[in-house]
Queue: 3 jobs
Job 1
Amino acid sequence: MAKESKTREYLGLSVVIVLILFVGYKMINYHSNVIEGLTDSSDSSDTKTNPQKLAAPIKETITKIEDAILIDKYRSDYENIIIDLEEWANMELIQMLGSGLVKTDSGADSNIENIRKMNDLNTFKSTLDSAMKFLDSKASKKGGGFF
């Protein structure tokens, strides 16, 4: 049972890492195109003053990412990954607190690194919450009724 749980955890983490790497690659690729577009002087006045021309490549990139990650098809998998990662972050926080990493008798300076680690985990949980809200917003935009 524990082996199956660990396998599921590793599989979930692997999917998230691949997803993050893919999105990161796409963002870097997109940013380099935007930077090149902003520094190109051939059509400088039109591109800089026309928001529609600036917005078009952003929308195109969003569409490419949506097509690649298939939110509608894998929604429950993404939700499970987010839920599992939040559970993991909570367990890590409890483990850190329970192991006595923060020692009140030694002063704040000696504890600052461990406190930062816990704060980073809490920030990560906020990121997961934002991702879940985003998934929910994608579901509400699609509709689902007959009307």
Job 2
Amino acid sequence: MRTFKDERPLDLEEKAIKQAVILLQSVKKMPDARDYIRTLLTTGVAWKKMEEMIIRQGGTRQTSTHLTVAPHLTRFYSDISGEVHKIHNNLLSYAARMAGAPGDKRAGIFLERKEKERVEKGEEIFRIYSSSRQKLDLVKKWIETQKVVEVLT
């Protein structure tokens, strides 16, 4: 079975490592901080610690295979071929809230493309899920008035 640990977003991991190095070095000078943090990630120590924190906060140990999405969805496609230049996260976040997140745990957004990735005309860039068809219709109309994702030729 493939898990999030196997298919993790490496660009996000790099950002997290960079931030962790800054935090760690602010309290303890470590010339090998980056290697130390990467070891915590790759050996599963960080994953186990995260699970401990989730359980202490009243959560349960679940895998991404337990996640379900809302029944209604709408897809958004690229109008042109080119490179994804900019994804406006603040607009996507607002769209997710319009769709019902975070109250509705099944509502949200799935990105098919990241910044700097190539996309062809007609290819899906992202989709939005909602438990409410009415909310989804409102989100779709709102997104059509926004420049949520910029694709440059």
Job 3
Amino acid sequence: MANDASAAVSEPRSVPSEPNPTRSAKGQPVTAQPAQSPAKQVKRRRVPRWEVVQTLLGRFEDPRYLEVGVSKGTTFHQISAASKVAVDPVFKFDWETERRRRSADTEYYQVTSDVYFGAIVDDDQQFDVIFLDGLHTFEQTLRDFTNALTHLAPRGVIVIDDVNPPTYHASLPDPSRYQRLRKHVKDDRRAWMGDVYKLVWFIDTFYQSMSYATVADNHGQAVVWRERRTSVVDRSTTEIGDLSFESFVLGADVLQRRPFAEIVADMSPHIGTVAS
């Protein structure tokens, strides 16, 4: 991230006899059609990272965008906004050339997020959409989230990447252990997410003034906005810090996974400056 380094079986009952389903009303043979699998029936288009961010930015006039953890710039450079700020300790592209070729409204800071929030960003600077995709550890992402809230516009949105690890090894906060286990089980996917998922549990318990949901039609991005919730689940900070992958899987309903379009519809009264 910004630092280096989710029935009982009833008894059969008799029913009135029905016409032979293999014959039409006129008595002609009917070819049986194979039932579609549920996966084919409900297949949903995958929503990429940049589209989630861009859709949210589209709810603001002259949107201001901050991305923490830019890496190769894959998402950042696809985003259109009135002003954009990129923060990463080691950009994996020629950021100085990019800075020269882009407008003055696009800024690059090759520093850790702690340095950016602590010494660079103006005290009164606000952003409409903040995307957190940096170091994949709970502690660092929590720190980034807390700092981001200070600079979030009143009707702004925070997007937290990688909160739904697909495997145990993808949930490990140590990238070297993740790589060793991934190779051991011969997993070709490069899906290191660390234990960022714990931040969702933390928000659920300790940020009652914020509402959230996780995008179900992609790899797992949590979308967080200001809307008070009537209740929270009582957990200790120690319990959340120790949350295992097993507990994550068994309690994945905490993620509140929903289709992105549904999330946008529900949050619309609470975000943006452009009427829906």
